[in-house]
Structure formats: C-alpha cells, structure tokens
Amino acid sequence: MxxxxxxxIIVVGSGISGGWAVKExxxxxFKTLLIERGRMVKHIQDYPTAYxxxxxxxxxxxxxxxxxxxxxxxxxxxxxxxxxRHFYINDEDQEYIQEKPFDWVRGYxxxxxxxLWARQTQRWSDFEFDxxxxxxxxxxWPIRYQDMAPWYAHVERFVGIAGTKDGIxxxxxxxxxxxxxxxxxxxxIANSIAQRxxxxxxxxxxxxxxxxxxxxxxxxxRSRCMAxxxxxxxxxxxxxxxxxxxxxxxAEKTGNLTIxxxxxxxxxxxxxxxxxxxGVQTIDLKTKNKKIFKSIVVFLNASTLNSNLILLNSKSxxxxxxxxxxxxxxxxxxxxxxxxxxxxxxxxGYENSYYYGRRPTQVFIPAFKNxxxxxxxxxxxxxxxxxxxxxxxxxxxATEGLGADFKDNLLxxxxxxxxxxxxxxVLPSFNNHVRLSPDKVDKYGLPQLITxxxxxxxxxxxMEDFFKExxxxxxxxxxxxxxxxxxxxxxxxxxGLEVHEVGGVRMGNDPNTSLLNRYxxxxxxxxxxxxxxxxxxxxxxxxxxxxxxxxxxxxxxxAMDLIQEKKL
Length: 568
Ligand SMILES: Cc1cc2nc3c(=O)[nH]c(=O)nc-3n(C[C@H](O)[C@H](O)[C@H](O)COP(=O)(O)OP(=O)(O)OC[C@H]3O[C@@H](n4cnc5c(N)ncnc54)[C@H](O)[C@@H]3O)c2cc1C
What we know:
This protein is an alpha+beta fold. The protein has 13 helices and 20 strands. The protein has one domain (2-564): FAD/NAD(P)-binding domain (3-Layer(bba) Sandwich), CATH 3.50.50.
C-alpha cells in the first residue's frame, strides 16, 4: 500500500450531506478530497432520461422482468423505474443480510441519493430536540433549536426552499424563495381544519424546488421549477437541489476540491500515539488496489448505514469493536419513519376546478400529537401529508366511445380524489441495530452488514391514531368513500423503503451513552466527524435531509475553526 498525497480534509460520500461538507470546506480555502464509491454523474450531461417522454422508453417506463428478478430488492422502491434505475445500485453491488426484513435503498454515484430524493424539507423545532428527554424514549440530544437555527437559514438560502411563512412553533419557518399553491379542494380541506381545530394547521409543503428564485441560486446557474415532476431523472434546469446541480459545482469552482470516484472507503485508520485518525483506507473499485489517504480531519457522509459499516470496520488494537466504540453502542438505535398508514377518499363537487402542472410537493399538517401534552396510547409524533387530484387515470380506463370520441373523452378529467399519508416517528430502540457479519463479505471483500430493524407496538398505535384523526378531518371537510390502509398488512411494506433510516452513531453529551459530541466529533477520536443520518439521536417527524445538511455545515465550520486554532 502506498501513500498517495495529503489533503486538509477527507470527505467520504458525495450525496446530500457530503456535498455540503465539501462546499463549506472548499469555500473557506481548505484542500478537500471527496471520495465517492460510485461513478461520475455530471449535471445535465449525465441525466440520460431527463427529456425522454414515457412512450420513448422501451418499456414505457415500467420495471422489466429482469429488474424484478436481478434487482428484486432495490426495484421495490417506488421511484425505481426504467427512467431512473441508473441512479440506483444493483442488488449484487453490495449484499447485506436481513435478519429482519429491511429494504435498504441505495444510490451509489456522484450525488448519491440527492439525485433521487423527493425534496421535502422541514426544520426541526425544540419539540423534536427535547422530546426524547422529556418523554424518556432516547438519550438527550446535546443541541437545541437555537444551535441549529442559523445553520438551517444558511443552508436554506443556498438550496432555495419553496414554502410559506406559517408561524407554527413545532415546524419553524424556513427561509423561502416563493411557494407552490394548494388547489381548491386542498384549500377547502385546509379551511375546514382551520375552522375546527386550534391545535393543527394545513400548509403547502416546503421543498427544495425553486418555486421562485433568488440571487444565490441564479449564481449557481439554476433556474425556476416548471413542475414537470420528472425530478428523480435529474433536472437539467437545476430547479431542484442536488449535490450535482448545486454544492459540488460550487465547490469545484474554488479550485480546492479533488473528487475521486469509483473508490470505496473501507475503514478509518487510527493512530494510538496521537489518539487521532490519520486518514482512510480505500479500495479502487476497478483494480481492487488498496491505498491510504491522509488528512487532518475525516468527515463521514457515506449515508447512515454505510457510515456505521465503515466505523464498525475500523478496527485497531485500541478499538477492536470499531472506532470510538468503547461503549458498544455503535450500530444500535437505528430508527426510521413509519409510513404504514394511508387514507384515500373521494371529494364530491369542484368539477369546474383544475390545477396547473404537477406540483412537486403536497399539503402538510405538521405534528399535533405528543407536542404539548403526552398521549396515553403512544409516544412520538407524526405529521400528515395529503394531496387532492383529478382522477384522470381511472377515468381513462372507464371512458366509453371509439376513435376520436374516445380520445376526446379521455381529455376530460375524472372526479376529485384524496390521498393522505403519515410520517411517524419510530422510537429509537436498542434492539433495532446493524452489525457486521463475522464471516460473510461482499464482492469487494468488505463485511456484509446485518440489519435487524423492525416496527414495534408503538408504531401500530400511532397508525391507528392517524387513521382516526385523518378520517375525522376528511369527513368534516366533506370527503366520502374514506378508506384506510395498513401498507405493511396489504403489501408487506417493510422498514427501509421510506429511505429515512438514521442512527447507530448517535450524538449526546455523555460518552457512556453516545458516540458523538455536540459538534458531531467522535467522543474518542475527535478528528473524525459523522454528519449524515448516522449521527441522529432520534428521528422526529420531519423529513430528515435538511437537518443532515444543517448539521454538516455547522460541524464543518466548527472543524475549520478548530484547525485554525490548532486544536485538531
Ligand atoms: C426516492 C427518494 C425520496 C426521498 N425523499 C426525501 C425527502 O423528500 N426528504 C428528505 O429529507 N429525504 C428524502 N430522501 C432521503 C434522502 O435522499 C437521504 O436522506 C439523503 O440522500 C441522505 O444523504 P447522505 O449524504 O447521508 O447520503 P446519500 O445521499 O445516499 O450519499 C451517500 C454517498 O456516499 C457514497 N458511499 C457510500 N459508501 C461509501 C464508501 N464506503 N466509500 C465511499 N463512498 C461511499 C454513496 O455512493 C453515495 O454517493 C429520499 C430518498 C429517496 C431515494
């Protein structure tokens, strides 16, 4: 193994969080090596289906038989299609062992899952940071909203968030560029909720699509969202935030960024004399050659389960169970979002009303349970998202007529339908964990990850509460034919498919019960930072990635301050 060259910083992974790390480091002049296991995906030129119409795709966008056999696992994901499969891994690329069923959704390329994500972004509030302590279901977070507020604003100004200022204490307002609009039926439901409830409010979703545009995004060469709703193919207009359209090209312009693709970080190397990491051990995907890269600081942004894997695999005489893992808690308290519950309904009337485009967000009802008072039946909070739409598809199937009449009839939209979902906080549990297989390795010789993650009775109680509250709100607003669906019972939906897995290397003030301090540094190896979802002590009810970005920007600036003060 030969030593390649030195950098100030090594960042592992170029997805949502890694993109933010390199943007912050390079902007302040730090020479940064970004190591990415996937291939290069250049903004615009590497989005092969961005302009393709469905009828131009060989299988009209559907999953093929080969997808369903060769990629049985990953092709379960809702966004996996003929138009997007090149942004997902193949199952064989990284085998893992499901001790309990867990669908691990992965996208390995420059940009990671930032190309695929659904872009919903809400801030956490003090309710989420304080809830684990207050309701005694996890270790106390070492930070509170005031630590994060400036970093949320910092990230949002650059990313460009669509949304309105709603004044909701448990979902603080974001810095926004404009907003998408509710359609008339959604507005009617929102009005009905406003009239009947003092504890809840329906708002238009906040998302990283440019409903409007400001100087910061224009300077990045991005333009306004046209509501094509083809985002997960890559947006040639840069109208949604991805590492590829935003943070990475910005960082490259500084001249301080080196990107190394097709390279897996196998482990972080520890030096017992300095009590610090010296760098990382890598494997070249094509040649299988191993190399060491050295730096002052290592940032792990390989996505939640991969950062766990890398650290558990970073064994030394001092840390035989994984770097910084004296308390044995690494890999434990993996959590995710409960997406089991869904409600559908019809909404009579409003036949003369329609909407423009395919809006890239829904209407949200921020959490209203376990916020100001504790529920008797379950812990944790959930938010609700819903949309109202004209049912053109069902109408098409049922349309009568022949030839031109048939085609003309198809253009008439059907009645209004409502689709409503929950996003529920799954409580961190010691039993929900990942660990390394003692004997099975993947095709690169890395230990396979064992996932042992499941729902609990609390998740069922929360889902029942959602069914009750959602049905009540829709009934009061005038909806009919309301149906509830447990997607686990109906389709065998497993944890993982929501792609919000977090934890395993949690933050906390106490090194006996946590792995990372309040700035995301390993308690026992302070020049290693973990700022992807692995660092999360609990998951809250909000979509997680905005918080990963804000935590990353905050930790990166802290790391640079420490380096400049010669403390690292
Ligand atoms: C369809 C879809 C919809 C989603 N919708 C939302 C949403 O609306 N809101 C939200 O907040 N989140 C959403 N998510 C989740 C969101 O995409 C993730 O939370 C986010 O991408 C995580 O960022 P990350 O930086 O941790 O990881 P990623 O974006 O996955 O990036 C990790 C990178 O690390 C690389 N890597 C992995 N292992 C190694 C290694 N050993 N060495 C080197 N490189 C490595 C990978 O190749 C990858 O590029 C969605 C995800 C999907 C797929």
